[in-house]
Design brief:
This protein is mostly helical. It contains 7 helices and 3 strands, in the order βααααββααα. The chain is rod-shaped, with a radius of gyration of 55 Å.
């Protein structure tokens, strides 16, 4: 970045440009809430532009800006030096952020209170802005994963529900007492061949069930 230092008493055209640059500083976010710094900067710039350097001494600044009495001891009261130090820091902050595109820049070098005006030939954008202008890469799409996962989850949940339903039934059947013998295991009785015996009062189905009968015998009941 190339710069060229302007005269301490610029030409009328440069003076107007300097005043416009000053106004932008005063209304900026960096300075708008710092009235003491604004008053000091405006006093220094205006007196520097008109060449009234005798008004830009520590003693005069203390009297004119900070309402100190004439002849006050600036060695003990360092309000001018402390405020000037904060002013330099705030100017650096302004040109690093809001005023990065300013072509004419105002500074107050250490060791004095006279404003210097520099014209910037090549304005460089701040790193934060150049980084913000770069496109932001997007992560790969996860749409397929987002679609397949719910289906897998539903299948797993269905299996768990089925298992939770069948497991108690299986345990119940396993622990259930033995079932009675099937009908096929009971003695086979030929009821149709002996229906005529049911009329006898001395016989009953229970008696018949345990009465041996030979189908091959020629004996007939009366």
């Amino acid at each position: 970045m190339g710069t060229r230092s302007a005269l301490e008493t610029p030409t009328p055209v440069a003076s107007e440009e300097a005043r416009e640059a000053l106004q932008r500083i005063l209304v900026s976010r960096t300075f708008s809430k710092a009235p003491r710094l604004c008053s000091l900067l405006q006093y220094i710039v205006e007196n520097s532009l008109i060449g009234r350097f005798d008004n830009i001494t520590e003693q005069q600044i203390g009297i004119q800006i900070f309402n100190r009495s004439p002849g006050y001891n600036s060695g003990e009261d360092t309000i001018v030096r402390g405020t000037a130090r904060h002013l330099r820091q705030r100017l650096e902050q302004y040109y690093a952020d809001e005023g990065h595109a300013e072509r004419l820049r105002i500074s107050v070098p250490k060791g004095g209170y006279i404003a210097h005006f520099e014209t910037v030939d090549n304005v460089v954008e701040p790193a934060s802005e150049s980084i913000a202008s770069q496109p932001i890469p997007f992560p790969p799409s996860t749409e397929s994963t987002a679609v397949s996962w719910p289906l897998t989850a539903r299948v797993a949940i269905s299996l768990l529900v089925a298992l939770a339903t069948l497991l108690p039934l299986a345990v119940y059947l396993w622990m259930r007492p033995g079932l009675p013998a099937k009908a096929s295991d009971e003695p086979h009785i030929l009821w149709p061949h002996f229906l005529h015996l049911s009329a006898r009062p001395s016989l009953s189905p229970a008696t018949l069930a345990w009465t041996p009968i030979s189908l091959g015998s020629s004996t007939r009941c009366c």
